[in-house]
């Protein structure tokens, strides 16, 4: 990656990273004492608290099917961002963006869950953005996986998941990529995100397969080559995130 | 595409189409007498009424910028589907799916609009699904473009858009693609949609560039090759839709 | 009616109709492929899509009574009218006018239904105004009856209504009447509706009895004679609508 | 009316009234010390508190037209009825019935107001049912008129309405009528209301003209003769109510 | 108390009361014919209608515990105050103040109820302010107790509460106290309330024990001595209110 | 306090504290990089993130008065507690408890603010409970003061508050106290809170004056002596909290 950082002035990033370099990633497992699983995840200044709540039973529409359910809710504290936003609870409605991200997180986690192995149990992931600096949805997915894995481990220890069953069939993480001044870049903070011509969120399993590919032309429509460069970058980033997830889960709990 | 339809029994589609074949497409321009632009679009049994409402002025946050605004709202009649759903107006809230699709349609149309050329005017696209049989969001985008183009033409005739300005920089259409029993297929009706392992909605300009690529692993995560086959199909379908849009707009209004 | 059209210039209607003449009426039965019954009804430029959804079972408060339930919901697409209105789903509340009309349609249909013969089944009528040009509620009632009759026929064919039972005890239709410049007129389009001193909606059975009489002095209070003239006109109009309904239902389905 | 009370046992009313007799009516003017006008009205056990709030200025859509505005809101205390209902404020939505009655009261009062004479001022009538025993909407209209008249008198005294202008062009009152066991009856309490085959609310000016006629076939559709008998009764009742209103307003305030 | 009224000019109250004197208190028991218990209570011009609705059974979360439930809802008519407020039902949400007072009334009443003696029954107290002039929440608590006691008596007569069980273990009443120009005063009307430096609502049982003490420094923080003077006054006032409650309940019902 | 900790076994606390001892208190100033002021405060396992958002200008009703405005919003993450609660944004309404605590925090902070010195500026305090173990409202008030003080300091540095003006006239902190098994105790964690017969939240300025005293008999009404013991304890606790606040604010920011 040396060429892109030296030869091209347009590739210079405000935080000095190479185009294919993640921000400093930190995952604090078990940050909350109340939840069955939890993780405080940081992608640079983006900080998301993910908790996993395990309950026996499933929603009514799924009863008696012998399968479990995993869902997610995403939200942002009013002053997570640079200027304060009104609370959605005060406005009395959830905005479209919040809905959309909650649904994305839920789908992403369900892609690596064997709901039969989970049994008739429900896990709700709450992803609350405490501080926002771009990439909150991808940080949320990556952190939520850790909280989910902890909750599954807890459920096994409690005997709430059948002996020998393994609800987690893979890991999953996500990263944002985008094209800025014509250069594809990995893991965009807010200042880059607003300048990106094309913005893509990619959710990838530990085994390198795609779960979600969501690319949007914010500025100008993009061609097949640009799409391919972005996917390449996303695979580099999610492979590293998968490693960090595995290390975090391997460490003994406090 | 001959091999896949003849050699592989799994590729047989209930409606007899080849995997790379669109459903019968029909666009009735000017279906509504009230709106500045309108189109009733049909993708097989999917039927969406798109109207474009032109108003002078822009939302407060855009005032004085010399630019216009294009936005969209998507909704479904309660009995558009096989079983009746409660009205969102009765429930008092708009669901996540509705929000998500409204936002997608808005972004798609803005990608081919030169908001400076539009001047400080607003166009709202309403896409109401009268009958649903899969692909309602892609039909909505494709039909909304026709309604939008009609409203722009109307505004020019009325002198509400500056002489010589051309707000439309390209056309835009959308199609769904998916993998069913391992075979990539174009334009999925409901019965195929529910069986698809991977489902992708692709929004493409008349010049063949991507505006949105939204791929979701409904069943199993997908690999790079599968992604590429789906994008190939989507480009075939949207090229045909662009032709139909152009023909529709060329015809004199009744 | 000859005198009033020839001798009195005030009786001249913009669309050339005689004071006691309906607008062109069109009913397309089975317009929707999804619903158990449906009709697209047109009173001139007013266009309402009526669907009937049949479900087994009744609301909780009616369980075990051996009787069925018929109810209705009325709504208007945002650009059905000359200027766009905000969606009630977006506002998060249903307006008073919408509620009032939904209740009127429900009551009107229940007046000609034998709920015992229907058995413990529910039929919901959705009346969505696609294009509005006055008289939307009366068109909705008239079209909803056709959709209801279709759904009842379907239920009989499916064996969901007891053999020999006849839930429909009569037909029902509705029309608006009003006094404009002192002249009573039948079936008011929007331009006449806003000018009417008195406006009345009358719902009448096929056998010529009143189900609802709702007269409102928009401009000046009205006397007994005016009331009587309006009722006379309403009976002329609803008798013709009843004939059209019967013909529509007699035709074989496409 | 002698024949119907003596000869026909079905005409016997639980409270001993003749078919054409009102319940005891009581209007306490100035019941509230806070409002510009107020009246506590009783139709038998039905008890409605009506207050009129006068404010300078009109809603935005009416500004600069030189005309005033009169509107009304109707509501019921949760335990006004025999069993407690949930509060609409707690449910977060206003029911269809509430909306419908609020609109009816507003229209009725506007029919006897000269909005030009009122000037650019607004009067809001609040009609809160403290105890309900049938006929709450008609009691509300009748009491609201008294509160309105008081508020107009207050505004004149304050010089808020132009010298010599007379916003009130007539009085207005309302009564319910219905057919029970084939006998037309005046002013139905709850026990009669639920048994009525046909139920009609009639709003009449002091000069005997109709403002609203709302007849509904609760049980069986009704014919022209029945309609005429009901209108006769309504005119008897509203004439008496108009007298009581005039007497109440003539008395000096306590 | 003579010294404080004669020697200190600052202690002069607009209505001529001594600092430790209640406003005229009036309680009309059984004001509503519909509820199992009711009272119209007046503290000067403050007028609150309290009804008690008795229903068999308890909320789901309490089922099978052998205990009853008592809860309360407080609300204000829109024109109870000097200027009209929007209805909470129209705004679609209940304000913080309303919630807070409803909860306070509920807690106050539960403090003197033996829920086991009540059995699995629910009593809902509705306190609707018809006219507001300060102290509405304390009037509501005091009046609600009377309505509650009536409902309990009714339930005993109906055999809905076990023979020999006594759900009421004490009486409860409430009063406001405040410091105005340095002088502690009892039972503040609106004009005093807005001027108070410190405002306190105190709920006390008939046996003189505290149920709630809610003191707020509206103007300047207060010290221990001021707090003690206020509590002294509150005990004087609530002792008198307890006497009035007992007398009211001793009288035979009309 | 020695007698109660040694002689009385009932005084033994699960966490080994003396009755008059606070839990370990920690305040991390500047925890959020986005807000003008922030503090993460911990009372044992209770953890609240407080941010202060400074904006120029005041709400409309305060414009032109030359005074500023301070307000607060309190909320709890869904899994802050031992079992997950539904989000208020999802329910579409804010609960009574949330409203009540938000109002309490706002009043508490306004008691030590000179709104004239603040000028026409607004500071919104957001107090989000990340983990709850009793005393969340008192921790929120104590932490919010630190965030507020930071925001005021920032505003002075920015020149947004007039030179020489001092908006903060005192410090403010809060603590809960309660009677458990007859023993008054300071700073109750959740396990003690649910067992308390009487529960009191006391808000006190740095100079030892009361801002709010909110005592509630959860179990049995309390007498004057008990009230006095609780106030004594509260003054001990808030004096210590005031010291910690001062130390925190004296430290240089990281």
TrEMBL record, chains A, B, C, D, E, F:
It comes from Sinomonas puerhi. Residues 21-151, 170-235 form the Exoribonuclease phosphorolytic domain. The keyword Transcription does not apply. It is an enzyme of class 2 (transferase). It holds the Pfam family RNase_PH_C. Its EC number is 2.7.7.56. Belongs to the RNase PH family. CDD domains: RNase_PH_bact. GO terms for biological process: rRNA 3'-end processing; rRNA catabolic process; tRNA processing. This is Ribonuclease PH. GO terms for molecular function: 3'-5'-RNA exonuclease activity; tRNA binding; tRNA nucleotidyltransferase activity. The keyword tRNA processing applies. InterPro entries: ExoRNase_PH_dom1, ExoRNase_PH_dom2, ExoRNase_PH_dom2_sf, PNPase/RNase_PH_dom_sf, Ribosomal_Su5_D2-typ_SF, RNase_PH, RNase_PH_bac-type, RNase_PH_CS. Homohexameric ring arranged as a trimer of dimers. Phosphorolytic 3'-5' exoribonuclease that plays an important role in tRNA 3'-end maturation. Removes nucleotide residues following the 3'-CCA terminus of tRNAs; can also add nucleotides to the ends of RNA molecules by using nucleoside diphosphates as substrates, but this may not be physiologically important. Probably plays a role in initiation of 16S rRNA degradation (leading to ribosome degradation) during starvation. It catalyses: tRNA(n+1) + phosphate = tRNA(n) + a ribonucleoside 5'-diphosphate. Phosphate binds at residues 97, 135-137. Keywords: Nucleotidyltransferase, RNA-binding, rRNA processing, Transferase, tRNA processing, tRNA-binding. Residues 1-23 are annotated as: Disordered.
